[in-house]
Amino acid sequence: MLAPNAVLPSQFDRCQTPETIILNHEQDPLERANLRKAMDLETASGGISFRFEKNICTSYNIGIEIVPGNKQDANTTPQPAVQVNPTTGETELKTRSSVKAVLFGSRKRDGREVVIKMRSKAKSFKDSQEIYEWLGNMRLLFHIAGGPAIIEDPTKEKQACHPHIANVLDIIEDNVRFSPAYCECSGHH
Hints:
Blueprint: H1 18-23, H2 29-45, E1 51-52, E2 60-65, E3 82-84, E4 91-93, E5 100-107, E6 113-120, H3 128-145, H4 149-152, E7 168-173, E8 177-183
Parallel strand pairs: 1-7
Antiparallel strand pairs: 2-5, 3-4, 5-6, 6-8, 7-8
Helix pairs in contact: 2-3
């Protein structure tokens, strides 16, 4: 039995370097190789930045929300999520939530159908650690799909190596939200 104040060593101790963690897995070569691959991917994706746009409508046509609001009648035609303000002429995002929204859309350059998952910078994260982790995950998924090269040349998009994960085709931010664009999936049959 352990003493009540015993300190257990951890492979995830923040004081350990990545090389130390890998060396601690010498008894399991497969685990060591997988850990090295994960660390290499994290390093490669670390330099990727979200593309800043004043308005996402510059690059994408925004359609309807994938999950409409509860107030919507089944016989009512869904309204587009982006509407033009008649007074200012500016495009405004009109979704059921000011925190998160999942929308259909299409890339203006080539008409590619996408799903855009918008998250408010100020309201959809509990703390800076969650923002840091989420941004890292989006950069990693974008890198796996082909990274910044697919913005300029969509033919550089890699085939999904994990069929249950949609390729991230673009990562955009504006002053108030992050908006990764994913390839539109038909779902599982």
